[in-house]
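Sequence only, no structure available. Ideas?
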Amino acid sequence: MKKCWRIHLRRDLMRYISEGLTPNRVRRIEDHLLDCGECRDTVARLRSGQRFAAQLPRITPQRDAWNAIEAAIDQMDAPAARPAEPSANAARWRSRLFAPRFALAAVAGAILLAVVFVTLHRHAAPELEPSGLKSLEAVDWDEFHPVHIRDIESNTKPHVVAEGYVSEVRVNDEDGDLSFRLVDNLGEQERFIVCEIIDPIRLKPPAVGSRVRVYGVSRYDGEHDHNWYEVHPVLNIEVVR
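Reply:
I predicted one. Tokens follow.
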């Protein structure tokens, strides 16, 4: 199965199965799932973990322990003229804490929480961890489809490499991601590709005026104030001159 580099979509898969996305984001995720086997597999595993977590028994404490805790805090804050004898309530609470039944329940609860955490972390966390950068070492850059900036509108390949001059570099005010514009000629700005550098592949942005070769995922950004073609995310940058 081919590696999916649409990190901006993979970040939303957990919120997608939890129904926490806007209708527009849901449509983008579902359009992507039609063509991406890896993300369909990820969604299936996330839903399996969600069903597993929903089947776990809920543990409710038999009584609210806050009153005893608050009393102990007040006692610690009080001036200590002489060592105070433990009250009957404190002694009763201490005996319950060390009772075998309470200890077994606490151990069982801790094990249950650990199982839930490991299960969900195993399914969701690998998509966001910086260790995902290691997979770039195995990428064959020769497999990326060369595309000219002037021909980006007719491109149908998901993984592309484009070459051009960097006309500007920006930082997104909303998420802090870096982006730069790639043009054929610095004096001609009508045709361009917006290239976005996002986590976890945090590359150094190229200098304005340099000519670079950019590898990444091709997509069209149809937001009302955008309507342009992008390389998003950028996977590699080679400085040509």
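The beta strands are 145-146, 159-171, 178-185, 188-197, 211-221, 228-239.
Hope that gets you unstuck.
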